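GNAT family N-acetyltransferase
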Amino acid sequence: MSTVLLDKDRHDRTRFNCGVDALNSYLRMMAGQQARRDNSRTFVLPDAANESQIIGFYTLTMTPIDLRALPEALQKKHHSSTSAGLIARLAVDQRYRGQGWGEWLLIDALKKLLHASDTVGFPLVVVDAKDGARDFYTKYGFTAFHDLDYKLFISMAEIRASFAR
Ligand SMILES: CC(C)(COP(=O)(O)OP(=O)(O)OC[C@H]1O[C@@H](n2cnc3c(N)ncnc32)[C@H](O)[C@@H]1OP(=O)(O)O)[C@@H](O)C(=O)NCCC(=O)NCCS
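Predicted structure tokens:
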């Protein structure tokens, strides 16, 4: 199994339903356009048994770092950095829920961001967990920013160490 860039001619976006309208609509109406404009990249995991069906997707881009919302040690370490990688969206279709695909997609997204950071250098990955998935991310080592409960981060150093284990 591997993720591929969203291709509207190959992937049936209309059948995708993760239970969150905003995420479904984003995949249907915005993801392709945002990629064409180089604003973000959306990767989908197709079902090997029927490649048009999307098991899940995630969207990657960059985001500014609010240093003041980080723990003091990280503020010092990263005071000259301005940008973090962002998992802007990540969702699994309800038909495939609870089978480990959310974890699989998160690991895949983090691998891609780690690889990108080997080239352009950025110290954190941020995720916006507004849609009730906060505990999903904390389970994998993400920490909430001081000021925003639903915005979480993990350092590139932690990601690298967890893949080295
Ligand atoms: C959150 C989501 C991606 C999880 O996908 P999934 O394929 O069902 O998750 P997995 O089967 O890989 O679960 C992995 C682990 O996370 C846990 N988990 C799953 N969803 C969770 C949630 N919302 N909160 C806390 N833990 C969660 C599972 O219990 C499992 O734990 P275990 O290994 O101890 O049993 C999926 O529920 C979803 O798409 N939700 C709607 C969209 C959303 O909220 N996206 C995130 C914001 S962009």
